[in-house]
Amino acid sequence: MLGVSANPTFSQQAFADYLKLNFPLLSDAEELKTIAAYGVLRAAERVAQRSYFIVDRQGVLRYKKIQGRGESLVPNEKLIEELNKIRGKPDA
Question: Can you give the pTM of this predicted structure?
Answer without folding.
Answer: 0.77
